[in-house]
């Protein structure tokens, strides 16, 4: 059973002093006997006391800094979002405090508490999990902490967010493969269905919609069910290899992102399949490396810098105007970048 977080009332009862005395000891304020202070601090540590940094930050003056929490900086996706945020921040003389959660919800919470302790005026966050931190964000919103979610959101949570229209992106990718004559198209994702980000949910929905338009009822998703502790490229390599080794067939791949597409292509090539002659592949993101891969990767381009710019502008508006502006949900349009991995150039020549 999870133990409730220790508070000043618990410490006061344990030590046998008033809550005011505990407050003075923890915040080094007022006159208090050194031995009493030492006893209180020791008990606080033993009970695992952590100050409510959220509430404390709300009592402090603004600092013209904003916090940005992303999943990680591997690849170019969040780096380009940071560039967009930085452009707006510099123009408005705001500073940025950047941190990475690496996809761990508990780390995300501790980072946000740290940023609020640093007195940031607002937060932009790419949430690690669509549900696990819901109550935490509800608390932030109740306390009127300005928050804008980026890239991913938490369904049903009344909070501002800026993201790509992932459903449209998944549809564009899959429809392109269908227009090239591919009919056995698999969707290669990453991670478990239980912790699936809304971005992945949207791309899969777009994949399903495009297939339905061509009266293809069967969908094949590779990836869920495998341990997701590996780098995405290796994870995708294992997922596609396992499917092929079990007798699975495909003539098209829609990968949830570019790194997954790279792993899928390597797996296909290792089994003697040619890309794009035998199997067409489309990724998602249009990372900087996509055009240099062999074969160059057809992919759905996200407006990464624009996501950062829009999120930063929206956050600053929320900071300055508070609840006087309505909640905003901004979905930016993606577009397809056609390169050699899909085989469109082969179709044109025939």
Write the layout of secondary structure elements.
Blueprint: H1 8-15, H2 19-27, H3 34-46, H4 53-57, E1 65-70, H5 77-91, E2 95-100, H6 105-117, E3 122-125, H7 134-142, E4 147-150, E5 160-164, H8 166-179, E6 185-188, H9 198-213, E7 220-222, H10 232-245, E8 252-255, H11 258-270, E9 280-285, E10 298-301, H12 304-321, E11 329-332, E12 335-337, H13 344-349
Parallel strand pairs: 1-2, 1-3, 3-4, 4-5, 5-11, 6-7, 6-8, 8-9, 9-10
Antiparallel strand pairs: 10-12
Helix pairs in contact: 1-2, 1-3, 2-3, 5-12, 8-9, 10-11
Stretches where pLDDT is under 50 for at least 5 consecutive residues are: none
The end-to-end span amounts to 66 Å
Structural class, from secondary structure content? alpha/beta
Domains (count): 3
Q: How many strands, what sense, and barrel or not for the largest sheet?
A: 6 strands, parallel
Strand content is 15-25%
Rg, Å, rounded: 24 Å
Per DSSP E runs of 2 or more residues, the count of β-strands stands at 12
CATH topology of the largest domain: Rossmann fold
- Mean pLDDT equals 89
Q: What string gives the helices and strands in order?
A: HHHHEHEHEHEEHEHEHEHEEHEEH
